[in-house]
Amino acid sequence: MRLAFTSITVAFAVSLVASPLFAQNQAAAALASAGCGPDNVNFSVKTDKSQHPEGQPDAGKALVYIFEDEKLDPGINIDSNITTRVGLDGKWVGADSGKSYFFFSVDPGDHSLCADWQSSLASRSKQAGAASLSATAGDVYYFVVKVDARTHDQPALRVEPVDPAEAKILIASSSLSTSQPKK
To answer: DSSP character for 58?
Structure first.
């Protein structure tokens, strides 16, 4: 009887320790299947307000633009612009910071596009959004990562498609973003 009680106690203790790990693995798996890259990769981002280039799809590829749009309360306590990482099919492809944009080539076919808030604060780093992309060679696709960090509600992040006409305005009014993984 004592052996059975000890086994149950050990099993219960293991489940208490394993549950958070299982939940973390589930969350990581969900983010990866949504298109996000590994959590341990962070980006350095530079923006240039003077450049507003428009790309052209490479031969046999599609082109994807990513814009960042932030909604912040005046005087909100964020040290700098919000950085969002963007992933495609489980690999990070770049990052935006503040009202900026970047673009990249993608192979034709179905893809999972993901964005998350790069932050050392747990409540912010759990903010992510995703969208499906069915790319056709020669076509151009536009998405906006909407980050809402206003104090009236919980932080939120969404990825939404953008109309091509609206994208022209966003290109002209946004800074060009260049990013690279931090070492």
So the answer is: P
What is the chain's pLDDT, residue by residue, as a tens digit (183 residues)? 454 544 444 444 444 445 554 545 666 566 655 678 988 899 999 999 999 999 999 999 999 999 999 877 666 655 567 899 999 999 999 999 989 999 999 999 999 999 998 866 655 557 789 999 999 999 999 999 998 876 666 677 899 999 999 999 999 999 999 999 998
pTM for the predicted model, two decimal places:
0.78
Q: Tell me the C-alpha distance between 30 and 107, whole Å.
A: 23
- Domain limits, the chain: 1-33, 35-181
Tell me which CATH code domain 35-181 carries.
2.60.40.2890
Listed in sequence order, the residues at least 6 apart from 39 whose beta carbon sits closer than 8 Å to its beta carbon are 28, 31
Work out the angle at residue 64's Cα, subtended by the Cα atoms of residues 31 and 83, and round it to the nearest 5 degrees: 55
